[in-house]
Amino acid sequence: MNMQIRQHFQSIMRSHNPPTIFHYVNSVLITVIALALTAAFWDIMRDTPFLFFIAAVVLSAWYGGLWAGLLSGILSILLADYFLLEPLYQLFTSWAELIQFAIFSFVAVMISWIENNRRRSLDELNQVNAQLQAIIDGVADGITAQNQNGDVLFANEAAAKLTRESDKRELTKKNLIELQQKFELFDIDGNALPYDALPRNIVFKEKKKSSLVFRQRYVNSDDETWTSLHSAPVFDKAGKVVMAVNIFRDITEQFKLNQERAQLAAIVNNSQDAIISKSLDGIIMTWNPGAEGLYGYPADEALGQPIAILFPENIKEHEIRLRARVQEGERIHNYETTRQRKDGELIEISLTISPVRDERGQIKGFSTIERDITDRKRHQAEITRLTLLTQAQHNRLMNIVASVPGMVYESTITSETGQQRMDFISNYAESLFGYTLEEWNANDNLWEQIVLEEEWESIGKQATVIYESKEPGTIQFRCRTKTGEIIYAESHTTFIDNEDGTVLSRGVIMDVTERKHLDDMLQAYTEDLRRSNEELEQFAYVASHDLQEPLRMVTSYLQLVEKRYAENLDEDARVFIGFAVDGASRMKQLISDLLVYSRVQRNKEEMKIVSMETVVSQVLDNLRMSIEETNAIITFDSLPEITVNDRQMTQLFQNLISNALKFRGDASPSITINAKEDKGNWIFSIQDNGIGIEKEHQERIFVIFQRLHTREKYEGTGIGLAICRKIVDKHGGRIWVESEVGMGTTFFFSIPVKTTRRQLYGSY
């Protein structure tokens, strides 16, 4: 599994290689073709000269990545300006061209960056899929997926091994008929098992999980194995079962062991014990000498009598219920009860009750093996209890150890020499390091071969810390397996001092190589994401800041033209200039809002305790003219002092109150501001009586550039609420809205509690 993962990592690294010279040549050719197409259709594309060039950037970025896309964008600007735009064969002759090219450059950069990130995301998705495949192939249980026709759609390596195929690819080539010809199936009772009875078929018929234990015989070799099979359905969106997932394992050894234990128990229980067989209605059919000695009835007196002659009066009803359980096929082991001898003496016995079947498998009676435990029960009661408890604990411990995905060990360390003797090692040691238990037992210095020499000093320091703390801890180190592979191991260790001066070490050692690689990848990805966010924020800040000056110049020169050449301009020219000035003003406002948006994240000003009443009062002063023009009534109850960025809080409240004033109905605006403490947060609300927001748009309004109304009806850039969300997010809270059309709107936002001091309420 580790080899597969390593190969996959290598393929991922190859997929991230930088573009070759061919990618750049391809980018140039695509851009030249775009120039030719634009020139050919220039008469109809004069108003959209960059259409084909944008397509060239997209194709270049898709084929060659970020830098190929950027190269296409740069070439597009130069070729379009030099060969297509007036004056021809000159570069950058006007501010209008520069602005147009700046916008195209921005679009080209974003297209290239988005495509590059898409390619990287696709590579990461392929990487996760490969890791999942490697994990599944490392599972010891066989895993397959079949469609309703029985075709094997998927199989792991364990499935191929358990079905004796050369590899999983061969198994997926098999159809249902080929698989059926390979095995003969039998149920637990030895009856032939039809393939229709397998859980896979039940999954498709009944749309539920199914399990089965059965015996299978390989036709070509007559080898037999016992198999545990679990199948589960996979549904499509319509609820139809499209696939059955099968998980199976070879339980032959476990099954044989259970049979051997049952046989051994029968031999021990039959020795010197009473053996009695009865009919279904409880009539004694056989009576051995052990029964005569135990109960005092000769065989001729017992045969044909009901077994109830041995029951004390107070247990007869219970014995009848016990017999009913056996008639249902249940076998009852070592059941302790009271019996009555012929002379009336009550004795304690231990019995085993088993159903007796005929050649057709039908229950025709039951037999018991009964032992007198009267004399020893009193003396051995405590011993028996402790023995059973110890055995149960031992079995439970061994089952737990067997299921642990690591090497469970116990060792003794000589404090004088530091020599470590391995007293117990679980079977997982061979899977982890490649050395068998025999090799571990034969070589006391095997650890020196496994652990890398440069790791011993670090191991000693980590072990010392754990030993001195008297608490469990972990030790991490690198190892070399038997095949020479270097892996990262982690030991969860406990040290215990022995009375003889030695130290007992217990723990579990696991392979954490994959986790180590994933941690490294996650750390690298996190750093890339952080750097990318910073670069994006820096770009937005610089772009919005640097674009203001060109817009100011455009507006100034347009106004200068209108003033200087007013006598030469007709009405249409003055209207056109007005449109241009208005568009530049809106773009300036948009850039200004973008600058505010980018500054929210870039703002490193320390937070401090701020009175929210002071903040709201300042906002109301800022909006005094709008409040008076709209005859708005704004009230607020007592507001808290909290730890925040006061400038951003002012921006937040000003945006929300401005919206309430802007999106008003026919009545004068009425705005109420409140705050309450709830589960460690201050919940602020700004409620108005405005036009309201449709439910389907209530989440979209917080997305940047999202507008619900035209600019002719309500001015704005669609950035204000996005700024609000960014401010609240930065403070660790959230913002949401509740509204009904025509009934007003309430904006809520939460801020974590930093101080509980409140001041007097106020109103405006």
Notable traits:
single chain; 764 residues; alpha+beta; 6-stranded antiparallel beta sheet; 6-stranded mixed beta sheet; 26 helices; 49% helix; disordered C terminus
Overview of the structural elements:
It contains 26 helices and 24 strands. The protein has 764 residues and is of the alpha+beta class. A six-stranded antiparallel beta sheet has the order 2-1-6-5-4-3, with helices on both faces. The chain has a six-stranded mixed beta sheet with strand order 22-23-21-20-18-24. Helix 2 runs antiparallel to helix 4, helix 4 (51-64) packs parallel to helix 6 and helix 25 (646-662) runs antiparallel to helix 26. The longest helix has 43 residues, at 95-137. The relative contact order is 0.04.
How do the helices and strands line up, and which of them pair or pack?
Layout: H1 2-15, H2 21-40, H3 42-45, H4 51-64, H5 66-84, H6 95-137, E1 142-146, E2 152-155, H7 157-162, H8 168-172, H9 176-182, E3 183-186, H10 199-206, E4 210-218, E5 224-235, E6 241-250, H11 252-270, E7 274-279, E8 284-287, H12 289-295, H13 299-302, H14 316-327, E9 332-340, E10 346-357, E11 363-372, H15 374-403, E12 407-413, E13 420-425, H16 428-433, H17 437-442, H18 446-450, H19 456-469, E14 473-480, E15 486-497, E16 503-511, H20 513-546, H21 548-564, H22 571-602, E17 608-611, H23 612-622, H24 624-630, E18 633-636, E19 641-644, H25 646-662, E20 670-678, E21 681-687, H26 720-730, E22 735-740, E23 744-752, E24 762-763
Parallel strand pairs: 18-20
Antiparallel strand pairs: 1-2, 1-6, 3-4, 4-5, 5-6, 7-8, 7-11, 9-10, 10-11, 12-13, 12-16, 14-15, 15-16, 17-19, 18-24, 20-21, 21-23, 22-23
Helix pairs in contact: 1-6, 2-4, 2-5, 4-5, 4-6, 5-6, 20-22, 21-22, 22-26, 23-25, 25-26
